Amino acid sequence: MTRTQASEFLTDEQWQAIIHNDASYDDTFFYAVKSTGIFCRPSCKSKVPNRDNVRIFREAQQAIREEYRPCKRCKPTGERLPDKEWVAVMTEYMDKNYGKSLSLNNLADECHGSPYHLHRTFKKMMHMTPAEYLMNIRIGKAKQYLLGTGMSVSDIGVTVGFPHASYFIAQFKKKTGITPAEYRRQSYEDQE
Ligand SMILES: [Zn+2]
Q1: b/e string for 51-60 if b means 16 or more Cβ within 10 A?
Q2: 20 to 30 Å CA-CA from 167: which of 35, 45, 123, 175?
Q3: Residue 93 alpha carbon to ligand 1 centre in Å
């Protein structure tokens, strides 16, 4: 499909979100109203426009490029999420999705930012990179599985986000100084 302009087809779902001022759709799209020349977030409490006049944009910048003005009420270009809250969105996402393959680009997509800006902001606030944070979660979870379950080392690796056992073992050793199997054995010995 080739798109000749930045605006997109208005779906029924989006239309319902606009009618009901549904904030859960904020940042998934913006809507501009041809008759007023203004664009809004889905949650905006302004008067429901005539459906035929609505144009949909993924990004506020696209609407601006087409010379729509941001609504004063819902401030669609608005104050950016403060860094602290943005980083909380990132850590929460990683805390929940550490088992999946997660690149900086995935994270940036999920957390609505550019990879560069996301990486820089995260590092500034957390004093580590997103990749280091993710690695810490994965190794921590792996320790829990090693001690709390009888799962094999390679299955644990897969569960915490390392599809390749050799990479899992190498990373585990780098963090803890011992292999996953040694970690498990030591803890049994400690109990005896
Ligand atoms: Zn508005």
Answers
A1: eeebbbbeeb
A2: 123
A3: 28
How far is ligand 1, taken at its centre, from the CA of residue 43, in Å?
8
Percentage of the chain lying above the pLDDT 90 cut: 63
* Res. 4 pLDDT band, cuts 50 70 90: very low
Structure tokens at 11: 């779906």
| One-letter identity of residue 179 | T
Residues 181 and 152: their CA atoms lie apart, in Å, by: 9
Entry pTM: 0.59
Domain 80-187 has CATH 1.10.10.60: yes
When pLDDT is cut at 50, 70 and 90, the band that residue 2 belongs to is very low
Q: Which residues sit with Cβ closer than 5 angstroms to ligand 1, an ion?
A: 40, 44, 46, 71, 73-74
Interval between CA 23 and ligand 1 midpoint (Å): 12
Domain spanning 12-70, CATH architecture: 3-Layer(aba) Sandwich (3.40)
